[in-house]
C-alpha cells in the first residue's frame, strides 16, 4: 500500500498498472523540522516526489501531509 495514495483514498495499484505496482521506500527530510520520516510510495508518487521535491509533493497530497504531520510534527507544523 502506497502511503500517499492510501491517504488520498486512491487505488495505487490501479493507478500504476500491474507492471509498476511496486512500492519504493522513500525518506522525507526537510518538511518536518528535519526529522527523517520513512514512507512507502508507489512508482508514480516516488517520481512525483523526486521531480517536485518534498514541499510540492506534500502540497499536492494534502491528506498525506495531514497524516504525516499528525504522526510526526504535532502542532508545530507550519507551511
Ligand atoms: Zn502512490
Name some characteristics of this structure.
79 residues, alpha+beta, two-stranded antiparallel ribbon, 2 strands, globular, binds zinc ion
Describe the model.
The structure is a single chain. The protein has 79 residues and is an alpha+beta fold. The chain has one domain (3-76). It contains four helices and two strands. The chain has helices spanning 3-8, 12-16, 43-60, 62-73, and strands spanning 24-28, 37-41. Strands 1-2 form a two-stranded antiparallel ribbon. The protein is globular. It starts with a helix and ends in a 6-residue tail after the last helix. The protein binds zinc ion. Zinc ion (ZN) binds at residues 2, 4-5, 12, 41-42, 44-45.
Class computed from helices, strands and strand pairing: alpha+beta
Low-pLDDT runs of 5+ residues are: none
The largest beta-sheet arranges its strands as: 1-2
The hetero molecules present are: zinc ion
Strand segment count: 2
Topology (SSEs and partners):
Elements: H1 3-8, H2 12-16, E1 24-28, E2 37-41, H3 43-60, H4 62-73
Antiparallel strand pairs: 1-2
The structure holds zinc ion.
Structure summarized in a few sentences:
The protein has 79 residues and is α+β, with helices and mostly antiparallel strands. The protein has one domain. It contains four helices and two strands; from the N terminus they run H-H-E-E-H-H.
Amino acid at each position: 500500500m502506497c502511503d500517499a495514495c492510501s491517504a488520498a483514498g486512491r487505488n495505487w495499484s490501479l493507478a500504476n498498472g500491474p507492471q509498476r505496482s511496486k512500492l519504493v521506500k522513500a525518506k522525507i527530510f526537510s518538511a518536518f523540522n528535519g526529522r527523517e520520516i520513512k514512507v512507502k510510495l508507489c512508482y508514480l508518487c516516488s517520481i512525483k516526489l523526486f521531480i517536485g521535491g518534498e514541499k510540492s509533493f506534500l502540497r499536492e497530497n494534502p491528506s498525506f501531509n495531514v497524516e504525516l504531520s499528525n504522526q510526526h510534527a504535532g502542532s508545530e507544523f507550519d507551511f
